[in-house]
Amino acid sequence: MPVLRVRDIWKNYEGTPLLRGVSFDVADGETICLLGPSGSGKSTLLRIIAGLENAESGCVEWEGRDISAVPAHRRNFGLVFQDYALFPHLTVAENVAFGLRMQQLPRAEVARRTAEALEQVNLKGFAHRRVTDLSGGEQQRVALARALAPRPRLLMFDEPLGALDRALRTELLEELRRLLRASHIPAIYVTHDQEEAFAIAERVLLLHEGQIVRAGSPAEVWDRPGSVWVARFLGVGNILRGEVIAPGEPFRVATPAGSFEARCTHEHRPGDVVDLLVRPQGARRSPAGNLRGVVVDVVFQQDRFRLTLDNGLYFYLNEPCAIGETISLEIPAGAVQCLS
């Protein structure tokens, strides 16, 4: 049973639709991610859910009740921003306690919850330090503790790790996953970074031009992107346009790069133009390969080599190739998927 329901949200920006009929649910204890490029409407949607902006139409429901007219401070949702939004003149404890004091809780309760929140984010012993003396990662932990202290019924994160370096992002992502699972608080996480999305979310919603164009678990979205735009945004492989030459089993498509067998769940006739997703993994060198090209670039990536051919396609091999070498690759049918 969903605790949060977002229904048919429309929002305009300078006369142009920014959000176009967005709907989704969040279950109790579930972490979802709104993933998409800048300008897709992710942060605006989050602010509408938080009560910081109004939609042109549609509604936000919590446990079956329309809360669209409920002020932000009465929704009891926690919000964590990229820029921390901390008060520089206050100590760590004073920042964390700010929301609790606004609720006019007893002093002892404020102190207890503040200490509890700081311990949750591994900042025990930091209570009396100035936030301006902390590192970026520590400041983001303070912001998270401040969101956790009032015991929110929903947590929302707006690009929370965008200002941190890669090592810190990885570390904080692991901590966030642990916290969310332990607290069982439902959460909405906004990012343009697919690695963050796949690492933290149980379900990913991809936004493009104000609409959800793909939704599913990280594994489902990666395995079946469903459209050329999603496949390109996620960078899951090569996109080729070709012509159907055999619509049955096996399904075959002729492209400028060669002829391929592909997985296809659509209805097609011979001569139909389709888009193929050709995964870079699984290719192997073979004199009788169905794809030939000249190697124009080779990059070593830890346990494999990424090679780029003169037709713009790229693949991963276990062994290196020489730049300028003409090679033949066998692309298995399982690595080719029809997107249209």
Secondary structure elements and their pairing?
Elements: E1 2-13, E2 16-27, E3 31-35, H1 42-50, E4 57-62, E5 65-66, E6 77-81, H2 92-102, H3 107-120, H4 136-148, E7 154-158, H5 166-183, E8 187-191, H6 194-200, E9 203-208, E10 211-216, H7 218-223, H8 228-234, E11 238-246, E12 251-255, E13 258-262, E14 273-278, E15 284-285, E16 291-301, E17 304-309, E18 314-317, E19 326-330, E20 336-338
Parallel strand pairs: 3-8, 3-9, 6-7, 7-8
Antiparallel strand pairs: 1-2, 1-4, 4-5, 9-10, 11-12, 11-14, 12-13, 14-20, 15-19, 16-17, 16-19, 17-18
Short description:
By secondary structure, the protein is an alpha+beta fold.
**Mean of all residue-level pLDDT scores:** 92
Percent range for β-strand residues: 35-45%
For CATH, the homologous superfamily of the largest domain is named as P-loop containing nucleotide triphosphate hydrolases
**Would you list the SSEs in sequence order as H and E?**
EEEHEEEHHHEHEHEEHHEEEEEEEEEE
Instruction: Strand order, main sheet: write it out.
Output: 6-7-8-3-9-10
Q: Tell me, briefly, the overall form.
A: elongated
How many domains make up the coordinates?
2
Number of strands: 20
Overall CATH architecture of the largest domain = 3-Layer(aba) Sandwich
Helix % is: 25-40%
The chain-level structural class is: alpha+beta
Largest sheet: 6 strands, mixed
- State the low-pLDDT regions, or none: none
What's the CATH first level of the largest domain? Alpha Beta
